[in-house]
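Q: Protein A?
A:
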Amino acid sequence: MRALAAVGVIAAGIAGSAGQSTAAPVCARAASPSGSDSAPGTPSAPFRTAQRLADSLAPGETGCLRAGTYEQSVTITRAGTTLRSWPGEHVTLLGRLWVERGADGVTVEGLFLDGRNAKHLPSPTINAGAVTFRGNDVTNRNTGICFLLGASDMGNNVKWGRADEATIESNRIHDCGRLPATNHDHGVYVEAASGARIAENWIYDNADRGVQLYPDAQRTLVTGNVIDGNGTGVIFSGEGGTASSDNVVEGNVITNSDVRENVESWWGGEPGHGNVVRGNCVHGGAGDHGDGGINAADGGFESSANLMDAPGFVNRRANDFRLAQSSPCRGVARTPESMPGPPRPKARGARHRAVTISVRSRPARGGRRLVIRGHARARSGRLVTIRIRSRRGAHVLARTHVRREGRFRAVRRVHARRGPVRVVAVLANGARSRSVRVRGR
């Protein structure tokens, strides 16, 4: 039996993280970018790599990563173990994270998980039972799927392992999926799992679905999440002889999907049954035609008691999805009162705006020719609306899209006006530039 003489007891919690336990973790082993994999792995003599740390743990033990970036893919094979950040420290794992079949009861918490990998495989991938991801920041910088729960082949014969009773809780899950959108890359993809719980996460700005339940998602509970600015919010779906059933989507804020609906279904065979969408706050986006963006045309789910109103986030442009005190969604949603995931690193230098523009004005017959150029901290393909305001009122001057490296451009002719006009660029998520004053003719 492994000796535990070198166990380090860490007293500090991770400040500001809503998704993590306040109890002091016991770090049986540790790793540090300045350590060595030939070391004993104690807090005073840590390993160097996250993989060596994960491989060293016995059931019930916690491995802690010291501050820094670990550039490697990690496969967790030891059941009942916990991999987490050293309390209060910023830890980034850059590479694919895979919880392999048989590694039941694993917990991963408090990490910045950047899943970029050479093969663009989903990360994190879960192929074991009762796995928990709590209090992490998860992305892959728009290179593929983020969370994949269970994996099967197209005949729905489970090939790698199911992800039954998984818990995805209090994470930030964002900027997942290739751009332009492919309709295949999602923030949370529940492929082959029963009894999953997806709760109190912020799931935002993902290329395709925020949460995809396809083709074999059974008894999933999706509750208390903010699901905003994704290609689609939530989809119930199936294929062939398998259909996702008995899933409950309740108490979420599901808003501003920029490709299709906030909630929808699609069935490649018989539709699922027992799927429920109730008590959510739904609003805005490409598919909201006065119905909150809930499209039940393909059936397979029932919708009731949903509030169709703008959410009133504290600061959407800064990705702060807390609900303001005046938000009408507070009456139905169960979203967290504080930011989930680990504390964000403090910004260095002067803060820059999410959207900036410059306007060049030239005389033209009957008015002026305006050339509007700008930059947005947004993914390629995002809609940009150019608005103009004068003494006569305000209206939309042009619509364009963010191109490579965040740039956008529009050219329009403005009819002769008395006095100056002001031009502003607005992203689909509500972020806007400062207005630019343009002289009248």
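Q: Protein B?
A:
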Amino acid sequence: MVSWAPWRYLVETLGETRIQLCGRLVARIDGQRIESALPGRQGRVAFAYLAANRYRPVTREELAGALWLAPGASDRLSPLLSKLRSVVPLEGRGEVRLTLPAGSWIDVEAAAEGLHRAESAVAQGDFAGAWSPGRVAQHVASREFLPGEEAPWIDEQRRRLEEILVRSLELVGRACVEIGAGELDTAERAARDLIARAPYRESGHRLLMETLAARGNTAEALLVYDALRQRLRDELGAVPSDQTKQLHRRLLG
């Protein structure tokens, strides 16, 4: 059995600076918690935008658009940026960039990196190595990005995180099926969560079928296929993919 250690993976990647944008906003810079010192709602959203785009300079016009300010209202940013500079390390005037120390950790970056590591490990057949980074991606992406806020860039970030979550469920589930034994429980939870979130994504149904079959419940696995087949036929006028059909035939055999 694989020990549940995604937080060990997080701790290994953490430095003095840690920023959480998913769920409740938490920001520690150089060991100091600063989120309560951010200048109001706009200050929090501006900080989140700069943190999510920290590897490139952001123009004042772009930042004003992220805050839903009227076109041409970038001059109104000066007081806000002045207050932000007193709390967080910013550089630039016409273009602004958040400058964080080396080794800084931001949750949305950790989710993307965890997904990449998990994909690489699965591709190499290292299923135990895929488990922890996949769970890190899953843990971060399952939280809502900037809850309570609405903007096109926030919607885009949420869509990106939703795809990371769905993909991480696929990878963690696949790893757990291959590991077997007690990890089949995790595989089944991942498969059912994946089906609930993306009911037309056949990988979730295949994962559940394989998990049930690995437990000796082949009849239940065949019922999963039948339910998928009926849903695709009734709602989309479609049929399962060749990959799903092949799995069905293998289970019948």
